[in-house]
Write a structure and sequence with these properties.
heterodimer, A: alpha+beta, Phosphoribosyl-aminoimidazole Synthetase, Chain A, domain 2, 7-stranded mixed β-sheet, B: about 240 residues, Rossmann fold
Chain lengths: ~775, ~240
């Protein structure tokens, strides 16, 4: 078969600029051949090289005394959680594939992130996701939404990982450009950390897992372009097909093999498949690697070297085995009925060498390919629309006269409504560790002995006291759109607040930067400013970034998505007695607001960018609420202290929809069983605040607020403790009854919980009928 | 007591079953690989939940051909007690150890949620410890849990008191709304005529510790343990 000649057109089709092509020629000292061009194209795509964002990412805090493996070092970061245990976690996007083929796109996203975690030697124990779609009134959006959810369900359920938390927003900006960000967390002992490095000259290189096919050809490069009708149609073949059954077996076999100590290095074949795994393992170890493609199991006949190297067939792993211990690989993979092949060996040349039936095809310096992609400092310019955003005032908006109607309107808004239609399709309880399931501020998973990979003797090792990990994922992208810097801070703060409400101390953060085309200076401005905000937030809450993902080019001919820097944060709860949920517990408990009711320095009183403005007034504008990191941190420390003192019966953060929505959620969000919610009412008295605009009081999204409930006998103690900790404390009312009543002096709000629950619980299900 | 917990490729709830039998209930439990030919010296067998063979072909259809299933058939034929949970129930139906079949949920979607179970009989070694009238709050997690059988099989199940559990409301009513998957007669679990082999779609092992929000599932294991303890006692003359 003759290979295409290397022409400027072909170089351009591979997404490489003329400058980049010159750089390749300099590195090689010659012109690349077709396969080499393909290899550079995927490795130097944004997805693999972060060439547009690397300088920005340097601003993230990435160190703490607990970090065992830091950002960018390996496939996922690792954090010490005490007693010799550690957690590995990361978030990753599968946006473009999901836009083209929602079921497989989302499914393989889950598969990819799970592999990143067990590649580190950890046993994956839970998954989260963050999703964005257009509005559900569109049939095409409903198709994408149900396809993505069933794809995640299919892969996660079959693999046997609980999908335990997530978040979803619906907004026009994501129409045709859905976001699918998936997160996985695994557990291991410190000594079980595996490395993706090709150590040991002469060590054999094994390929394990299913055979390579033509699916997912150059998916990483595809993910690094704008989406168009045409590209979507052409690129359907770039979407991989997932097999969670295979992944489960590969994971079990790899963990079993890692326990033997026969492994020198291991890496999954994710984006850019065999290409990425070979050059990165060699680059990390400072070695070279040589493989022969004729030994690679192949699913399709007559595959070319180009196709084999760029295929993104799923569930495959590259394992560097200590010489002389090859038989152990064979025994374990035969036990699990998995294909394996010895395809090459580690060299001392520093070169990535690929042969086919002995014929030399590729010869590239591994380190230069993996680590020396060009870096771009893109131009950044404040977007023109921000001027109009800043000009917006409340004068054009009449105050509400029908607060109960507005509340119902907000509770039925898909972005605020219960996501049970989604999470009931996910097995969120498998592995028997889901202590707090989806539906509260943060999910909580228990780490117990069988959360761990086995030790060489087949045991789980020394006993330890169970640990509790809290997880949350958040991003209000409308805030980021309206103020990238403040929005970035708020995304982090909301995540940290959710953890604090559940009783947890943050350990670390992983972020997924979803943006439009970075060549547009206005988009790059959004990216730059929001990353600054994220970094500032992570520093304030002592939750360093341990890794993440960048997904650019999320735009189609209708425009870019709202800038969406998704933040997932992980925290630890030492004592199970401190695990706290958001719903009210008992009649007679006192409802308290921690934090200031309203930010009087904010001219929009928390209504800028609010769900209320969007839903009730059809406006997506106004400067979003301000976030003060100092008082916010005090608030989190304060609520944790109150929880630890045993004074808090429920804690819920005030976010989308403001105080009224948060209070309603406290009343209606506990689900006992199928068709069996537990509704518990509340009477709130805000008459002392009647000088304020009612819409701002009820629906404003002033930051730094948490609603707690306390037993009446603990009220004084809680107040004294809050005072001592410098946290504003205001009694709001009492738990009880079958209604939510908010007296505010003007139009009182009163609504039956059965009605509020029905609107909130069934909104998405009804939209999907 | 000692229990064998079978491990097929892509069994997912195998560790959960071992954890509850061992760490919560204090009995012996170990995983038995599906290619093994012997169950070892055990008093009971659990076929756990999961997606054995990735549900390829049909749920449980391939797992029933695994070598260990011959030992399970023999164990059951000798009167040994076998409990299939979720995918285990599906495998037992495919293996012919239980009548009927589990088909796609009526919603055509996977369902994971807590349900209320009404014990239709306490006259079995899997339900005997359940106090009369007590509902069990236990989670389900399946896409194919709709119990289906022909009319005569259903009549036999009723006549011989083989229905163990039915999906119910919090008040114990067998309504359509309380039925998460469309099962005939709201059936959530059954046993064979000899009453030594049982299958249920809900996961009692996920409702056996206070931290997990319900301990109702323990009543099923405790019933089993009572039955085994009684069997192992020499009969009084």
């Amino acid at each position: 078969m003759t290979e295409p000649a290397i022409t400027p057109e072909l170089v351009l089709k591979h997404g490489l600029t003329p400058d980049e092509f010159e750089r390749i020629k300099t590195i090689l000292g010659r012109c690349p051949n077709y396969t080499e061009l393909g290899i550079f194209s995927v490795m130097w795509s944004e997805h693999c090289s972060y060439k547009n964002t690397r300088p920005l990412l340097k601003g993230f805090p990435t160190k703490s005394e607990k970090i065992l493996v830091g950002a960018g070092e390996e496939n996922a970061g690792i954090i010490d959680i005490g007693d010799g245990l550690a957690i590995a976690f990361k978030i990753e996007s599968h946006n473009h594939p999901s836009a083209v083929e929602p079921f497989q796109g989302a499914a393989t996203g889950v598969g990819g992130i799970i592999r990143d975690i067990f590649t580190m030697g950890a046993r994956p124990i839970c998954a989260l996701n963050s999703l964005r779609f257009g509005e559900l009134s569109s049939a095409e959006v409903r198709r994408l939404f149900s396809g993505v959810v069933s794809g995640i369900a299919h892969y996660g359920n079959c693999f046997g990982i609980p999908t335990i938390a997530g978040e979803i927003y619906f907004d026009k900006s994501y129409e045709g450009n859905p976001l699918v960000n998936v997160f996985c967390l695994g557990v291991l002992r410190h000594e079980q950390i595996a490395r993706g490095a090709a150590h040991g000259i002469g060590n054999p290189v094994f390929y394990v897992g299913p055979a390579t096919g033509r699916d997912g050809l150059a998916g990483a490069a595809f993910a690094s372009q704008d989406l168009t009708e045409e590209s979507a149609e052409q690129q359907r073949g770039a979407v991989q097909v997932g097999d969670p059954f295979m992944e489960k077996l590969v994971m079990e076999a790899c963990l079993e093999l890692l326990a033997t100590g026969a492994v020198a290095g291991i890496q999954d074949m994710g984006a850019a498949g065999l290409t990425c795994s070979t050059c990165e393992t060699a680059a990390r170890a400072g070695t070279g690697i040589e493989i022969d493609l004729s030994k690679v199991p192949q699913r399709a006949p007559n595959m070319t070297p180009y196709e084999i190297m760029l295929s993104e067939s799923q569930e495959r792993m590259l394992i560097i085995v200590k010489k002389g211990r090859e038989a152990e690989v064979q025994t374990i993979f035969d036990k699990w009925d998995l294909p394996w092949a010895e395809v090459g060996f580690v060299t001392d040349t520093g070169q990535m060498v690929v042969k086919n039936h002995g014929e030399l095809i590729v010869d590239i310096p591994a380190k230069k390919l993996a680590d020396e992609a060009p870096i771009y400092h893109r131009e950044s310019r404040e977007p023109a629309y921000l001027e109009a955003v800043r000009r917006f005032t409340l004068q054009s908006i009449a105050d509400t006269t029908a607060p109960a109607h507005d509340l119902k309107n907000l509770l039925g808004w898909p972005s605020i409504a219960s996501k049970n239609w989604v999470y009931r399709q996910y097995d969120h309880m498998v592995r028997n560790g889901s202590v707090v399931c989806p539906g509260s501020d943060a999910a909580i998973v228990c780490i117990k002995e069988d959360s761990l990979p086995v030790l060489p003797d087949g045991s789980f090792g020394p006993k330890f006291k169970e640990k509790f990990i809290a997880l949350a994922v958040d991003c209000n992208a409308v805030y980021v759109y309206l103020d990238p810097y403040e929005g970035g801070k708020i995304a982090v703060a909301e995540c940290a607040r959710n953890l604090a409400c559940s009783g947890a101390v943050p350990l670390g953060t992983t972020d997924n930067l979803n943006f439009g085309n970075p060549h547009n200076p206005e988009i790059f401005y959004q990216l730059r400013k929001s990353v600054e905000g994220l970094a500032e937030g992570c520093r304030a809450f002592n939750a360093p970034v341990t890794g993440g993902n960048v997904s650019l080019y999320n735009q189609n001919p209708n425009g870019p998505i709202d800038p969406t820097p998704t933040v997932a944060m992980v925290g630890l709860i030492d004592d199970p007695a401190h695990i706290t949920t958001q719903w009210f517990k008992e009649e007679g408990d006192i409802i308290v607001l921690l934090g200031e009711v309203i930010d009087d320095k904010d001219a929009l009183l928390g209504l800028g960018g609010s769900a209320y403005l969007q839903r009730v007034h059809g406006l997506k504008t106004g400067t979003p609420p301000r976030l003060n990191l100092v008082t916010e941190k005090q608030l989190h420390d304060g609520v944790r202290a109150l929880i630890a003192a045993g004074l808090v019966k429920s804690a819920h953060d005030c976010s989308d929809g403001g105080l009224a929505v948060a209070l309603a959620e406290c009343c209606i969000s506990q689900q006992i069983a199928r068709e069996t919610p537990r509704l518990i009412g509340a009477t709130i008295d805000l008459t002392a605040l009647q000088s304020l605009r009612l819409d701002a009081l009820l629906f404003g999204e002033t930051q730094g607020r948490i609603i707690i409930s306390v037993h009446p006998t603990n009220l004084a103690a809680a107040q004294a403790e809050a005072l001592r900790l410098g946290v504003a404390f205001r009694e709001l009312g009492t738990v009880g009854g079958d209604q939510l009543t908010i007296r505010s002096g003007g139009s009182n709000l009163s609504a039956r919980l059965t009605e509020l629950h029905d609107i909130w619980w069934n909104a998405i299900g009804r939209a999907m009928q | 007591m000692n229990f064998a917990v079978l491990q097929f490729p892509a069994s997912n709830c195998d560790q959960d079953a071992v954890h509850v039998l061992k760490n919560v209930l204090g009995h012996g439990a170990s995983l038995v690989w599906h290619k093994d030919l012997s169950l070892g010296n055990v008093e009971g067998v659990v076929i756990p939940g999961g997606f054995s063979y990735g549900d390829h072909l049909r749920t449980g259809a391939i797992a029933r051909l695994s070598p260990i299933m011959q030992a399970v058939q023999q164990f059951a034929a000798n009167g040994g007690m076998v409990l299939g949970i979720c995918n285990g129930f599906q495998i037992l139906c495919e293996a012919g150890l239980l009548p009927g079949a589990l088909i796609r949920n009526r919603s055509l979607q996977f369902r994971c949620e807590h349900v209320y179970l009404k014990a239709a009989t306490t006259r079995s070694g899997f339900t005997r410890a359940i106090p009369a009238g007590q509902l069990l709050r236990v989670p389900i997690a399946h896409g194919e849990g709709c119990y289906f059988a022909d009319e005569s099989t259903i009549k036999t199940l009723q006549a011989k008191d083989q229905i163990l559990f039915q999906y119910a409301t919090a008040e114990g009513q067998l309504t359509d709304e309380s039925n998460p998957n469309g099962s005939l007669l709201n059936i959530a679990g059954i046993c064979n005529e000899r009453r030594n082999v049982a299958g249920l779609m809900p996961h009692p092992e996920r409702a056996s510790e206070g931290l997990m929000g319900s301990t109702d599932g323990r009543l099923i294991f405790e019933s089993w343990l009572q039955e085994l303890a009684e069997r192992s006692r020499p009969l009084a003359v």
